[in-house]
């Protein structure tokens, strides 16, 4: 190599070195000798003497460390200690991996417990996953190789790469150190969500505003609004409508924001104080871990005093010790108000309720009107006179009217109506306190009219179950008792039970449950049903005295829930006819006699719930006729004895604590259903146990065993393997988590036979939040960080899946089929997925997600997260009607996405109800004028003309949330476009920094770019508006707004808008009559909340009457109950509402100091 060329290279290196050392001026200014050495270095470098250069650089580095402050030393260390920087980074990454594992394990435990994971924990995990991903590891290795690489045949370090990459590694290590510090600050990873303590919307259809009830209802609402009233009573006979009326009152109180929380607890004839405490606590989001009743009461009392809480105790039969429960009202507990219902006035009076409001039966004309409506009778009917008499026999009780009217609705012959009237006129064989004989007869007649052979026993079985009972529990009981005839599979039986429940609901004998696949029953109907079951079938549902043990000898069903029966368990029970035995006492530790079951040789269904056993009695093995065994949450560890139950078909061991499924379970060759859900301690399934259960149809293992042994790794196997499922030819339902793809056998065709499934493959399970949101019976989640080959069985699952979650998969296009049945689709972190959903040969040429070969005819929910390469969602052409049933769209962390919908997509969004967009950095507009979504006629959808799009509206959209979109300027840039929002109730705009004005009309001449053009746009039902972190926002409202737009606002929350100077123009006040909550935080430029517009813009042209200063002096916010102004240093004036809280601001109220 020519010497001159080497010299030039050395000189270039010298110049680069000079540039790097210029970062530290202190080196030059503090020591002139150091500077001389630096000049000498340049001279020697010019002569090409590498050895001298290296030695002097070393000396120079030592002097730099000696004479410079830390920043200068740090800059030099990037040059001369890159290996130490990367060694530090490797150590931090390893620490982060270990910390992530610990946090992830905590998250999984919390999720299994039904907790909601904190947002900061989820964000931490998301950021950590990015730091330790395979892509990040590869990049770190490449950076380390570049930083240590030498140039010029290995003689000279690459100082430029060293400096930049060393600095990058140091910065990354510090960022990871910060993450580790954040992890140490996590006291917990989640919280138990506060369940909706009372469903205030469920009974809307049941409530009828009868004239005779208006006085009682108005009196109740007045009492709820009166702060001087602390305990309210409502009384009336059973079935008169007390609960329905109280729930409607609570619903309206909730709408008026009279209370922060509403809790409803149904009290039984024999109330259990501990259970009542726990139910109240659970609905308030509390966990009661104490055993001492006084301590529990004190905790509950303290919680009820925190806020304004309405506690509804429904159907009280006898006086309660409220203080012992932890419920105090009046002066002792100003935050709590209590509302009670009872069939007896004296019970309410003993509890010092005032007022006590009587609910009378319906007047004759009201009863007849309700009866006609429920029976579907017209004004003229051939048997109207008979129908009138039937209605009279219902005694004015809505529950009796509803049940008998629905029972007679299909009867088209006069003789059928006359026969019904004759039966109603016969004296009742039973009469309860508070239930007249006519009401009893009406409900009993409805029961008699149940046509299907299976309906009656199913109805009676429902009556012995708890409120909000689960369909699956009913199914397992019914199969065990033989109530379902002629069906051989559990799935067919499930369909049959669902049909029967639907029929009972239509007959008004059952109510909808508060959760999917649950049902409920009115207490009066329950009383009548249990009476019929006791009389006709010898069912026993309560144990009061020792003499009841004699009744057990003839009983066919015994259900003793929440009953103290420990004295029954210490000896053998003689129940030769018993088919069904159920017992449960929460938290009890029971010792059962070994001979307890000896006298129950006809037992078909056995249930113990929430009962802790030391061990199972040996006599359980003698129950040769037992078909269904439910031992739920019983703390069992050793279940080997169960292997003797040779005729068992259903085994339910949910939430048991055993660590191993023993080999004896393999002897249950008739078993059709095995439920091991939430058995979190289960670590071993004895090999070949599952494969022996040849008749198994349904296997539930979610939040339970997942240590599947990989095929061929260990021989003989020491644990259960998925390969065993190949031998279960009847298996059609499977709930299982498979953490390792390798555990899936190559021959996995058995997966394709599944009809109901909840399966997750990879290192993340379905969370409780996902589970609640999915609402489907075919759920599949794939979270794997490498390319996988899905077998034919998994591919068949994909084709049938209703809810699909793909997370972190590579080469996803190779594994995807068309999904004609898919209802819910969630995609997360498919970073290599840069092409269309349906993979073609042009994999790298397209940047849209969905193209014309995708067919999502029934897709309802779409969620897309962390798609780094996604630029467009929709291709230029789509299949006709594809995506037309979407109700929810959520997008987050798609940094290259610039818009969401092309104009031509709008016709497919008629059903859209929710739109949430988070952290899409390049997003500029929601709706673009570009192609996509079927802009040409070949797409199968009519293209949109500009004339059509001018009048488009999101007719069903109720919620719109836009978060952290720094480049978002508008919904769309077309000033001719008017989009109306007739159903929008909630809107949040957060950290959309490019927005300067939110609501403006198209005639606005300002230079500010509005987010919404509002020439004709209307928000007629918007209730909640939140605007946060808008750095450039200067104005909220234009001078002209559509009439009645924003007139239903109840809550406004403004935070961290530093350029905002005022909030409402005078002309806006007439739109704020319903405003209940106004919060303004951290808006440092706000000087006044209400301001007077300049010019003529405040005229009536805004669609609402203008307000003069004289008007504002008398204006009031009639519904404003909460006003928070916080950290507003320049606030000067405001109109005071009913309640004001002000902090960190020196303000005046029209010249008066704010108190």
UniProtKB/TrEMBL annotation:
This is AAA+ ATPase domain-containing protein. SUPFAM superfamilies: L domain-like, P-loop containing nucleoside triphosphate hydrolases. Residues 228-485 form the AAA+ ATPase domain. The keyword Ribonucleoprotein does not apply. The keyword Ligase does not apply. Belongs to the disease resistance NB-LRR family. It holds the Pfam family LRR_RPS2. Keywords: ATP-binding, Nucleotide-binding, Plant defense. The lineage of its organism: Eukaryota, Viridiplantae, Streptophyta, Embryophyta, Tracheophyta. It comes from the Eukaryota. SMART domains: AAA. Transmembrane segments: none annotated.
């Amino acid at each position: 190599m020519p010497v001159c060329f080497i010299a030039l290279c050395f000189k270039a290196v010298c110049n680069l070195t000079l540039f790097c050392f210029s970062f530290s001026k202190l080196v030059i200014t503090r020591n002139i000798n150091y500077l001389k050495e630096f000049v000498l270095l340049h001279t020697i470098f010019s002569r090409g003497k590498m050895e001298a250069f290296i030695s002097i650089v070393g000396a120079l580095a030592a002097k730099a460390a000696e004479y410079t402050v830390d920043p200068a030393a740090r800059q030099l260390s990037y040059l001369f200690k890159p290996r130490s920087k990367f060694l530090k980074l490797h150590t931090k990454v390893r620490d982060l991996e270990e910390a992530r594992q610990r946090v992830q394990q905590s998250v999984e435990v919390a999720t299994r417990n039904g907790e909601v994971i904190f947002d900061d924990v989820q964000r931490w995990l998301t950021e950590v996953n990015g730091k330790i991903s395979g892509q990040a590891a590869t990049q770190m290795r490449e950076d380390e190789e570049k930083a240590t690489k030498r140039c010029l045949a290995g003689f000279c370090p690459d100082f430029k790469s060293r400096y930049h990459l060393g600095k990058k590694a140091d910065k990354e290590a510090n960022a990871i150190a910060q993450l580790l510090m954040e992890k140490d600050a996590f006291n917990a990873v989640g919280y138990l969500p506060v369940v909706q303590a009372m469903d205030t919307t469920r009974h809307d259809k049941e409530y009828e505003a009868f004239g005779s009830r208006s006085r009682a209802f108005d009196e109740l609402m007045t009492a709820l609004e009166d702060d001087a009233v602390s305990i309210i009573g409502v009384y009336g006979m059973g079935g008169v409508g007390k609960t329905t009326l109280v729930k409607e009152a609570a619903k309206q109180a909730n709408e008026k924001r009279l209370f922060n929380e509403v809790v409803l607890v149904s009290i039984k004839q024999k109330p259990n104080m501990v259970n009542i405490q726990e139910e109240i606590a659970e609905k308030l989001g509390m966990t009661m871990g104490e055993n001492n009743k006084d301590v529990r009461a004190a905790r509950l009392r303290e919680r009820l005093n925190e806020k304004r809480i309405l506690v509804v105790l429904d159907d009280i039969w006898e006086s309660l010790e409220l203080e012992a429960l932890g419920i105090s009202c009046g002066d002792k507990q100003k935050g709590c108000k209590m509302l009670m219902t009872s069939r007896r006035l004296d019970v309410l009076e003993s509890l010092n309720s005032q007022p006590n409001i009587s609910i009378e039966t319906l007047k004759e004309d009201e009863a007849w009107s309700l009866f006609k409506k429920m029976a579907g009778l017209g004004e003229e009917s051939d048997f109207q006179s008979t129908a009138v008499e039937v209605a009279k026999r219902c005694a004015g009780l809505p529950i009796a009217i509803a049940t008998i009217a629905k029972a007679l609705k299909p009867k088209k012959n006069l003789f059928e109506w006359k026969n019904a009237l004759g039966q109603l006129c016969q004296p009742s064989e039973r009469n309860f306190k508070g239930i007249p004989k006519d009401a009893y007869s009406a409900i009993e007649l409805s029961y008699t009219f149940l046509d299907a052979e299976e309906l009656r026993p199913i109805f009676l079985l429902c009556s012995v179950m708890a409120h909000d009972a689960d369909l699956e529990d009913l199914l397992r009981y019914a199969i065990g008792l033989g109530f379902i005839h002629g069906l051989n599979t559990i799935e067919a039986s499930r369909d049959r039970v669902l049909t029967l429940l639907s029929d009972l609901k239509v007959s008004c004998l059952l109510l909808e449950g508060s959760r999917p696949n649950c049902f409920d029953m009115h207490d009066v109907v329950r009383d009548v049903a249990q009476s019929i079951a006791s009389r006709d079938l010898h069912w026993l549902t309560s144990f009061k005295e020792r003499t009841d043990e004699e009744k057990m000898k003839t009983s066919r069903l015994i259900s003793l829930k929440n009953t103290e029966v420990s004295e029954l368990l210490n000896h053998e029970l003689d129940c030769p006819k018993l088919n069904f035995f159920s017992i449960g006492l929460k938290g009890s530790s029971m010792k059962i006699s070994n001979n307890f079951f000896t006298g129950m040789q006809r037992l078909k269904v056995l249930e113990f719930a929430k009962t802790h056993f030391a061990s199972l009695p040996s006599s359980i093995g003698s129950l040769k006729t037992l078909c269904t065994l439910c031992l739920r949450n019983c703390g069992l560890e050793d279940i080997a004895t169960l292997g003797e139950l040779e005729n068992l078909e259903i085994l339910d061991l949910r939430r048991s604590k055993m660590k191993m499924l023993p080999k004896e379970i393999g002897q249950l060759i008739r078993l059709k259903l095995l439920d091991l859900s939430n058995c979190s301690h289960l670590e071993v399934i004895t090999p070949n146990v599952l494969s022996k259960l040849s008749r198994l149809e349904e296997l539930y293992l979610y939040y339970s065993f997942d240590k599947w042994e990989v095929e061929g790794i260990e021989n003989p196997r020491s644990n259960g393997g998925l390969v065993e499922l190949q031998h279960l030819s009847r298996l059609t339902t499977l709930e299982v988590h498979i953490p390792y793809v390798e555990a899936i056998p190559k021959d996995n065709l058995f997966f394709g036979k599944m009809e109901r499934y909840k399966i997750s493959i990879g290192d993340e399970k379905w969370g409780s939040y996902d589970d609640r949101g999915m609402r489907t019976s075919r759920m599949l989640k794939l979270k794997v960080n490498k390319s996988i080959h899905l077998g034919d069985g998994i591919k068949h699952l994909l084709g049938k899946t209703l809810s699909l979650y793909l997370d972190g998969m590579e080469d996803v296009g190779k594994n995807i089929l068309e999904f004609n049945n898919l209802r819910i689709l969630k995609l997360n972190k498919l970073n290599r997925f840069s092409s269309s959903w349906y993979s073609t040969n042009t994999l790298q040429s397209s940047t849209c997600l969905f193209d014309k070969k995708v067919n999502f005819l029934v897709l309802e929910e779409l969620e897309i997260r962390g798609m780094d390469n996604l630029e467009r969602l929709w291709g230029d052409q789509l299949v006709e009607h594809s995506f037309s049933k979407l109700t929810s769209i959520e997008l987050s962390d798609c940094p290259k996405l610039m818009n969401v919908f092309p104009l031509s997509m709008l016709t497919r969004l008629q059903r859209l109800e929710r739109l949430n967009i988070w952290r899409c950095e390049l997003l500029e507009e929601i709706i673009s004028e570009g192609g996509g979504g079927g802009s040409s006629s070949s797409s199968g959808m009519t293209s949109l003309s500009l004339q059509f799009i001018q009048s488009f509206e999101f007719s069903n959209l109720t919620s719109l949330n836009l978060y952290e979109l720094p480049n978002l300027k508008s919904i769309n840039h077309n000033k001719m476009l008017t989009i109306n929002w007739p159903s929008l109730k909630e809107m949040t705009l957060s950290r959309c920094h490019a927005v300067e004005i939110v609501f403006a009309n198209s005639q606005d001449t300002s230079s500010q770019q509005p987010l919404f053009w509002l020439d004709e746009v209307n928000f007629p039902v918007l209730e909640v508006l939140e605007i946060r972190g808008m750095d450039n926002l200067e104005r909220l409202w234009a001078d002209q707004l559509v009439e009645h737009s924003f007139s239903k606002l109840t809550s406004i929350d403004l935070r961290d808008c530093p350029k905002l100077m005022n909030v409402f123009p005078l002309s806006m006040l007439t739109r704020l009559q319903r405003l209940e909550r106004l919060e303004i935080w951290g808006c440092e430029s706000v000087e006044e909340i209400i301001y007077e517009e300049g010019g003529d813009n405040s005229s009536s042209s805004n669609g609402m009457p203008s307000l003069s200063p004289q008007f504002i002096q008398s204006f009031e916010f009639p519904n404003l109950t909460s006003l928070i102004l916080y950290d507003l240093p320049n606030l000067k004036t405001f109109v005071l509402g009913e309640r004001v809280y002000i902090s960190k601001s020196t303000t005046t109220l029209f010249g008066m100091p704010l108190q």
